[in-house]
Amino acid sequence: MPSKEFLKGRGAQKNTSNRFLQHVYEMREDFLEFCRLEGEEAESNKTKYIPIFPKTIVNKVDSPDVGMGYSMNPYQGCEHGCIYCYARNTHEYWGYSAGLDFERRILVKESAPELLETKIKHKKWKAQTIVLSGNTDCYQPAEQRFEITRKCLEVFLKYRHPVGIITKNALVLRDLDILKELNKHQLVGVNISVTSLSEKTRRKLEPRTASIQKRLKTIQVLSENNIPVNAMLAPMIPGINSHELLPLAKAVADHGALSFGLTVVRLNGAIGQIFSDWIKKAMPDRAEKVLHQIQDCHGGTLNDSRFGTRTKGEGKIAEQIHEMAHLAKKRYFKGKTFPRLNMELHNQYKDGQMRLF
């Protein structure tokens, strides 16, 4: 049974120290006891939206492990609260914690559509797929309120520019009208993250995400509209969801996905501490076993930052995961391919309308 201390509705169960800050903020036991006796909350669990004003929005991705050249993130921080999320560490650059702050302090870039338009209209820019959500989910709950992602998709359509999307939220179907228009010109591909077929597991790992059934339905609806879908069965966590790889692959294939990708979980930076604290509270009966199996995939440590191996893992457990993935592709995805996006149209539309000469 989960610990009584478990904070429902959030992934992380505490705020870790920010490695870039000189001072450490801690809540003392006597203060917590005082709040309890007074019937007061020690801190608010509500999400705060904080506007920020970046100078640029499109980021070049240099990592050889990620599989994208450029990305953009309308939001920093993510209310989905996925406990394993590698993006947590980036919240420290903004002066926040990678723990609860990452889920409760969402930085909002309302100028993103204008910044994107400036970028792709630049005379030196040549069309390359820009991925929405290389870091944090562009369809997280904040999108219902701000609609920044939708406005960015309108920019991509206006300038006939290729765009990729990564999400685990069914909210992407709200923008089906724009996605269908983009797809007429082969300008969009969608990646839907599906990490488990068990709602119990999903609620623990990813507390504020769409249900598994909604995600599978999202894949189905997109596929029925001929919008190409790749399923991200990631991360695979030994002892939690790695045994589901084959049924997961079958499920996404049955619902229309053309391909799938995966990674083996890695707990770099502050995530190792956050995940370890979480699993001892959420799954105390198997905590040590899971942590040891993750270590077995990364040379005896939770933190692996080596290019080429950090997302694949190594050792027997990682090898078994990749062998199952190979089998799944042969069994469920034979003859299917995820199409290349169209890079040829954008240059004709840089001024907002097709050039005649």
Automatic annotation (TrEMBL):
Among SUPFAM superfamilies, the record links this protein to: Radical SAM enzymes (SSF102114)
Name the domain of life this protein comes from.
Bacteria
InterPro entries from the UniProt entry: Elp3/MiaA/NifB-like_rSAM, MJ0683-like, rSAM, rSAM_sf
Q: Which UniProt keywords apply?
A: Iron, Iron-sulfur, Metal-binding
Cross-referenced CDD domains: Radical_SAM
Q: Where is the Radical SAM core domain?
A: 64-301
| GO MF term (any one) | metal ion binding
Q: What is this protein called?
A: Radical SAM domain protein
Species of origin: Allomuricauda ruestringensis (strain DSM 13258 / CIP 107369 / LMG 19739 / B1)
